[in-house]
């Protein structure tokens, strides 16, 4: 089977168009891959920043005492508990009782 010049030209044009479309698709996919890599890099950077802050906060937390030295002493802790209400609080309470009457 033989082809005419016109058929051959038509086939070559279609083949060239197909090749051109494939190249466009390849470029588009490469561009999308680069954008995705950039986004992944941004996410990794953000996660690293968060990790650094969390580690720093944990180190700071480990260095801070949870309780003061006074509370660690049982005698002082009892004194602290007993001194929750001062005499001025009692007088405030008494004045409130008078208002209620």
Describe this structure in words.
Residues 63-101 are annotated as: Disordered. This is CSON000607 protein. It comes from Culicoides sonorensis. Residues 63-75, 87-101 have a biased composition (Acidic residues). The chain is mainly α. It folds into two domains: 1-64; 67-101, no CATH class. It has four helices and no strands. The longest helix has 59 residues, at 5-63.
Secondary structure blueprint with pairings:
Blueprint: H1 5-63, H2 69-72, H3 74-82, H4 87-100
Protein name: CSON000607 protein
> Main beta sheet, described?
none
Number of domains: 2
As a percent range, the share of helical residues equals: over 70%
Shape: rod-shaped
Radius of gyration: 40 Å
Strand-residue proportion: under 5%
End-to-end separation in angstroms reads: 120 Å
Uncertain segments: none
Classify the secondary structure makeup into a structural class: mainly alpha
Q: Could you spell the SSE succession in H and E letters?
A: HHHH
Please report the number of helical segments.
4
Oligomer: single chain
Protein name: CSON000607 protein
Organism: Culicoides sonorensis (Biting midge)
In summary, what is this structure?
It contains four helices and no strands.
Question: Which labels suit this protein?
Answer:
4 helices, mainly alpha, 2 domains
């Amino acid at each position: 089977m033989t082809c005419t010049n016109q058929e051959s030209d038509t086939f070559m044009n279609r083949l060239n168009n197909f090749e051109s479309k494939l190249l466009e698709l390849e470029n588009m996919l490469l561009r999308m891959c680069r954008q995705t890599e950039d986004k992944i890099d941004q996410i990794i950077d953000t996660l690293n920043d968060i990790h650094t802050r969390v580690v720093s906060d944990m180190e700071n937390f480990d260095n801070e005492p949870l309780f003061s030295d006074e509370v660690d002493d049982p005698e002082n802790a009892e004194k602290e508990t007993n001194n929750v209400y001062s005499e001025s609080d009692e007088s405030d309470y008494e004045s409130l009782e008078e208002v209620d009457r």
